[in-house]
Each structure stands twice: as C-alpha cells, then as structure tokens.
C-alpha cells in the first residue's frame, strides 16, 4: 500500500515538473488546427512528447544516471553536453521563464499595477522555501501543488466537454495531421530534462527507504507511467477544447491568445482567474522541480564542494534577475541552444534504450557527432547564413533533418573504429 502511494505521489510530482506553462498552449493549438481530426494530430504529439519522456526516463533509470547514457559518446563529450543542458534547464533559460510567464499570463492581466521585479523576488523566494530540502521536493509538489493544478485543469476541461463552444471543422488529411502533431510534440523538448528529473525521482525513492537499485529503477519507471497517463489525459482534454473552436480560429491565431479566449468563452471572468491559477501552479511546480534538479546535479558534479542549499540560493537569485528580461527575450535566447542539444540527446537516449543492439561506444560517437554537426548547421542557417545542404536532407520539413546523418554516422563509427 505504501509503495503504491509513493509511486502515485512521485508520479504526480513528475507530471507537474513536465507540465510547464509553455506546454499548456501547444495542445489547444493542435486541436484548433485539426478540427475533427484532433485525435490523430494529438497521437503524433503524444508520441513525440510523452513517448520520448517515458523512453528517456526508462533508459536513464536502467543505466543508473544520465551520464551513463550520454557518456557512451565519450566522457568529456557527455559531461559537456550534460553541463550545458543543465545550465539551460536551470538558471540561464527555463527556470527564469517560469517566473516571467507567470507574471505575463497570471499576474499582470489581473493586477496590472504589480511591479515585475518585486514579483520575481516573491516568486523565487517561494521557490527557495519549497526547494531548500531536496528530499522533500517531490512530496511537496506531489501532495500539495499538483492536486490544485489538476483540479483547476479538470474544471476547465470538464466544462469544455459538457458544453462545447462550437462544432468540429471536418478535416480529411490525416497524414498531414499526424506529422503536424509529431512536430509540435518534438518542439516541446521535454525529454531534454529527463536525466535530471530521473535522478531526483530516484533520490526521492532512496530517501523513502528503498535501497535496492533494481527496485528503485522499477519504481521510477512506474512513477513515470503515472505522470504519462496524467499528461495524456490533460493534453488530450486541452486538444479537444481547441478542436471545439476550429470553426472560429485558423492556424494564424496566437497560441496564448487561443487558450485565453477558450477559457473566457467557457467560464467568463471566472475563466480568467482559473487560467491564472493553472499557469501560476504549472510554472511554480516546474520552477521548484528544476531548481532542485539543477542544484542536486551541480552538487554531485562538484563532489559536494558546493552545497545543495547554497546552489539553490544562487539559482533563485540569478533566475530572479534573468526573469525580468521577459518571456519573448528568454525564448529567443533559448531556441538556438536547445535546437543544437535536443537532437543529440534524442539519438543517445534512443540508442541506450536498445543497448543490446547498439553495443559499441564507437556507434554512439559516430551518431552523436554527426547529429551535432547537422544541428549546428541548422541553427546557423536559421540565423540567416544560407546552408542549402541541410534542406536537401530527408525529413527536413518536419525538423528531423538529423535522422539520416545520425544513422550514417553510427554506421561509419561502427565500421571505422
């Protein structure tokens, strides 16, 4: 009984860490642009987002650490990749964005006189209080914060199911719908944080008295399935809400504006308040989870020369400063860096998930380096330097131009080294 309760609580916490406010806006947009075919589009989204999260957690849990996965491409390469990734997930990009998003979507619309600097200090002050004890983070999120978030979400989704806003526009091009959903799910880049998240889950289970490594890995996978089910239900519900306004809005609608309008049409002014609560709790749970994950990671990397509590304080102070740049500025900084990192991480996680097939480190190295080169060229091209070669690669239109080079790189690495 206790074991099942622990799995559910940590699964709830895991759901909240991945369910950031950024992800809140993707599913309604998918539904609005898919109409009657929203389920097909959502399936593509779920595979690329939730599927990759579960696959990543499974690979890391069985390997024992994220470094055991990315380190197959070389210890220095793996460590560099992991450090850059944790800095991006931490104080440089993602954590500051949680405060900026909460202010812009929750606080400013209802209380326009609130000073953003003061709010960021209050937001990260609360994050600090909730994060300062590492073994309690998952319990705090799972027992207290997630239930409030889920109740608010299910009130919104339940109202939309019982009283749909409009008809679903008929759509027949199912292949295009699936690929669109796949691309949107890929763009969430949720699996990027799976290494640190898995480490925090395993630490939480260890703190609860589970000592056997295989049992901890098994419990971690089970908790991730609880989170996965929650994400499927919530994302699916939000996608359906979007589908009910497919006759009103087209693909040009702003994703944020779409969610705001859906909420207002369903619940009026109460909807605005409810959306503010959803965004605030989604951002807070993500901030708490990622702050703890980042602090724990750098404590381990420095062999505890820098204490967890000191790192939490440093992250919260730095994130409070960066958050005042605003959401758009933070996203513009994040996009190129994440575009380089994410494909490499996916390749290494996929190969680690089938480690009985991919047994040689040289295979991992060849695939990782080939993917890295294509990702860097893609970012350079997106910044205005025309590199026509990358647009001739298969699956370029879907954002997966790295797939074939990764396969070739793996084969070459295996044969040569």
Automatic annotation (TrEMBL):
Keywords of this entry: Amino-acid transport, Cell membrane, Membrane, Transmembrane, Transmembrane helix, Transport
Name listed for the protein in its UniProt record: Branched-chain amino acid transport system carrier protein
Transmembrane regions: 7-26, 38-57, 77-94, 114-132, 144-166, 186-207, 219-241, 273-298, 310-327, 333-354, 366-387, 399-416
Main localization of the protein described in the UniProt heading: membrane
Family (UniProt): Belongs to the branched chain amino acid transporter family.
Native species: Romboutsia sedimentorum
Membrane-topology descriptor: Multi-pass membrane protein
Function comment: Component of the transport system for branched-chain amino acids.
UniProt-annotated location(s): Cell membrane
């Amino acid at each position: 009984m206790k074991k099942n309760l622990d799995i559910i609580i940590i699964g709830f916490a895991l759901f909240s860490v991945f369910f950031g406010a950024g992800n809140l806006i993707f599913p309604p947009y998918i539904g609005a642009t898919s109409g009657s075919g929203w389920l097909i589009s959502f399936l593509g989204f779920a595979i690329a987002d939730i599927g990759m999260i579960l696959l990543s957690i499974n690979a890391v849990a069985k390997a024992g650490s994220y470094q055991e996965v990315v380190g197959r491409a070389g210890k220095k390469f793996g460590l560099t990749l992991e450090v850059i990734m944790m800095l991006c997930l931490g104080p440089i990009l993602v954590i500051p964005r949680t405060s900026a998003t909460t202010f812009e979507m929750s606080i400013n619309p209802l209380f326009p006189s609130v000073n953003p600097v003061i709010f960021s200090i209050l937001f990260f002050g609360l994050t600090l209080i909730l994060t300062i004890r590492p073994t309690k983070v998952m319990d705090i999120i799972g027992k207290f914060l997630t239930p409030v978030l889920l109740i608010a979400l299910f009130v919104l989704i339940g109202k939309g199911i019982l009283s749909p806003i409009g008809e679903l526009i008929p759509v027949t091009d199912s292949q295009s719908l699936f690929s669109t959903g796949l691309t949107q799910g890929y763009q969430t880049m949720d699996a990027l944080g799976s290494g640190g998240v898995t480490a925090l889950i395993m630490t939480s289970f260890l703190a609860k008295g589970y000592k056997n490594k295989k049992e901890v890995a098994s419990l971690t996978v089970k908790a991730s399935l609880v989170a996965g089910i929650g994400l499927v239900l919530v994302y699916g519900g939000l996608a359906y809400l979007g589908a009910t306004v497919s006759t009103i809005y087209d693909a040009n609608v702003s994703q944020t504006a779409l969610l705001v309008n859906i909420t207002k049409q369903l619940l009026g002014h109460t909807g605005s308040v409810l959306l503010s609560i959803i965004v605030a709790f989604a951002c807070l749970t993500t901030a708490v989870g990622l702050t703890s994950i980042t602090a724990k990671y750098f404590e381990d990397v420095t062999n505890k020369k820098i204490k967890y509590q000191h790192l939490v304080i440093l992250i919260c102070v730095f994130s409070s400063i960066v958050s005042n740049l605003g959401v758009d500025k933070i996203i513009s900084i994040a996009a190129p860096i994440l575009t380089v990192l994410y494909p490499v991480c996916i390749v290494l996680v996929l190969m680690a998930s089938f480690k009985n097939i991919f047994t040689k480190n040289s295979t991992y190295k060849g695939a990782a380096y080939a993917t890295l080169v294509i990702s860097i060229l893609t970012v350079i091209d997106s910044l205005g330097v025309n590199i026509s070669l990358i647009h001739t690669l298969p699956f370029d239109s879907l954002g997966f131009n790295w797939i074939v080079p990764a396969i070739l790189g793996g084969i070459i690495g295996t044969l040569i080294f």
